[in-house]
């Protein structure tokens, strides 16, 4: 669709993209209020941005185009939501035994919040999470080997999956690139999904730590069904209507 952009529209689109980078989602009514324009104007802006490949429109706004991003860039997105999720997830990390952490930034923040343990083995395919947990008293942090996936700063491949499968874990803490109540979680690459499935196969429980901006989306590589998880932890109150599609499928925290 051919469009003629005005300086005002360009400034609005810059603002919308900044919001998208920070929050991973644009809410139509909120954006209209902040930019002091009509929702129809924001819809037109989002349509143009979608045609340019910057985002994907959904009901009520838009979400990021799902794709690989480095750990440092992902960590800054929806940081407050990730911190709330990590605080909730702390209650599920045992003081002794063994756990696995995936290479997500949400679970990485959980690692940064861990206090002293009594003898906990923690395996991960994230160098950043390994670095932040290796000096915690009572925690033995293990970095699985493998090939470096530069786009996501994770370790993947056959060496990583063999190393991940060499231990048994009480719980595996994982996030995802996208989640849908019917199709489950998915990732931006097949190797990333394979490492996660390996961790899950040798864990008693899967704890999903997912912020709500990823709801109703699908990425390229399937990982888990919702039924695979014991608990779904989000930044939302468990009574929030946005969790209704998962209600009855998994424990909500």
- Total domain modules: 2
CATH architecture label name of the largest domain = 3-Layer(aba) Sandwich
Number of strands: 15
Radius of gyration: 19 Å
Strands of the widest sheet, in order across it, are: 6-5-4-9-12-14-15
Tally of separate helices: 9
Quick one: CATH class of the largest domain?
Alpha Beta
Q: Helix-strand pattern, N to C?
A: HEHHEEHHEHEHEEEHEEEHEEEE
Structural class: alpha/beta
Q: Any idea what the shape is?
A: elongated
CATH topology type of the largest domain: Rossmann fold
Which consecutive residue ranges, at least 5 long each, have pLDDT under 50?
1-5
The separation of the N and C termini measures 44 Å
Strand content: 15-25%
Major sheet size, sense and barrel closure: 7 strands, parallel
> How much helical structure, as a percent, in the residues?
25-40%
User: For the residues shown, what is the average pLDDT?
Assistant: 89
